[in-house]
Amino acid sequence: MMLTGSILLLTVDNTVCLVLFTLFYGLSQPLETLIHTVIIKVLGDYRVLFYGSYLRWGIWVAIVMTGMIGLLMKDDYLSTLLVILSIASMIPIVLISLVWMSTEPVNPIQLDISQEQAPLLLKNALHLTADQNNIIYKPYSIFGEQLSHISEEDASQLDRMFTEESLRPVASYQSVDAVSFQSESVYRYEENTIVPCHALALLPLPTPLDPLVGIYIKDSPEQELIYPAMPKANIWKTSTLSLTLLLLGMGHGLINPFLFVYVHEILEISFNMISCLIMAHFLSHMLMSFVIEKWFFHRFKLTLITTSVHITLILCSILYPCFKSNHLTTWAGLLVLQALQVCAFQLIWSSAADQAHLMHWNQMDRMKQRATISALYTSIGPALGVLIAGCILQSEKRSEDYILMYKICVALFSLSFVISWGWTSDE
């Protein structure tokens, strides 16, 4: 996608390029969310354990396709090749989405999970997705009400539970008055029957393309009755978190889309080398996601993570204009900076999404907050950044324009770093 967009900017008429971008992004983004929804629906209760591995298959395909395009590129039919590949790639996505929309969750056997491992894996998966702040939660509810009257040692009852039906937790209630019980039952039912597209926002490692429909979830007045003792979310922390992601999104819109145009026009890097840069981008993204998923980052302080990320992004913005054309160090430096930049953006997004999870006490508020920062980070922020870049890159002095653009990136990342203190501080 990045390779196609960057090269079309260089080879296709502006009007045609605008029409192609509108069609491509207008169709691909909803379809991408739909594909992710199908994946988590197929995986069912095990999605939190296997979701990341399925996404890595897509990244591997992107790496291979980018390498093939880089090898097959010829200037005489470059734009035609890219348009054909873009259209051809959309057709199977549409077909897959239509075929698998009515799919059902698979059973453990279809996921190559043995019957001995299934209960333990399911328990770990539900532990990561269930609301840990539920004060009336019972351990037996992890297996549904089937274990509410027996001991955990009853193996015969456990063996009967290996069915294809979902084993999501069923809330168990203490003795409460009828009105409170009824309100809680309705709210719990709505909360546990969340449509799969909303469940994207509840994964421990969410994608930046969380469904924006989470923003429009109506506030339920029953929440205050159900959780009277739970504290409200800190408005200062949520506001500074949203503003930080907005500024980072603007910086991403400035530094990333026009980077490949900059290295081709100013640094005179060939399209084949640009494809290698994009492959490094995808590979770094995949490796960073794998590290976060398996090892995560809770061993470090949040302030250390945000400080390291912002320093990395500021250094990238400063060093990009310092490269000279036709130098070996330029090519090596671009690869290193591209990898560091991708890792920094992936790490700050994962940290922010995890922090949004800790700021709120119920799943609906978590979805709304993650959907909000997703919109700011992946849509609104980059759109503003691209508009700023478009206003800057108007004169004939392209080299000076790019230097000014990267100076603005330094200012945005510095301001984002200062604002991030609002949601990373312990107070």
Can you walk through the features of this model?
The chain is mostly helical. It has helices at 2-11, 14-43, 47-72, 78-99, 118-129, 155-159, 178-192, 196-199, 222-226, 235-255, 259-265, 271-294, 302-319, 328-359, 363-392, 398-424. The protein has two domains: 2-99 and 232-424, MFS general substrate transporter like domains (Growth Hormone, Chain: A); 108-195 and 221-226, no CATH class. The longest helix has 32 residues, at 328-359. The chain is globular and about 55 Å long. The two termini are 42 Å apart.
Looking at this protein, list some descriptive labels.
single chain, 427 residues, mainly alpha, Growth Hormone, Chain: A, 16 helices, 67% helix, globular
List the helices and strands and how they pair.
Elements: H1 2-11, H2 14-43, H3 47-72, H4 78-99, H5 118-129, H6 155-159, H7 178-192, H8 196-199, H9 222-226, H10 235-255, H11 259-265, H12 271-294, H13 302-319, H14 328-359, H15 363-392, H16 398-424
Main location: membrane
Subcellular location: Membrane
Membrane topology: Multi-pass membrane protein
Give the overall pLDDT as a whole number: 70
Count of distinct strands: 0
Structural class: mainly alpha
CATH first level of the largest domain: which class? Mainly Alpha
Distance between the termini: 42 Å
Shape type: globular
Q: Major sheet, described briefly?
A: none
CATH superfamily of the largest domain, by name, is MFS general substrate transporter like domains
Would you tell me which CATH topology of the largest domain applies?
Growth Hormone, Chain: A
Outline the low-pLDDT stretches.
130-195
What is the level-2 CATH architecture name of the largest domain? Up-down Bundle
Pfam families: MFS_1_like (PF12832)
Transmembrane segments: 6-27, 48-71, 77-101, 240-263, 269-290, 302-320, 332-352, 373-392, 404-423
Membrane topology: Multi-pass membrane protein
Subcellular location: Membrane
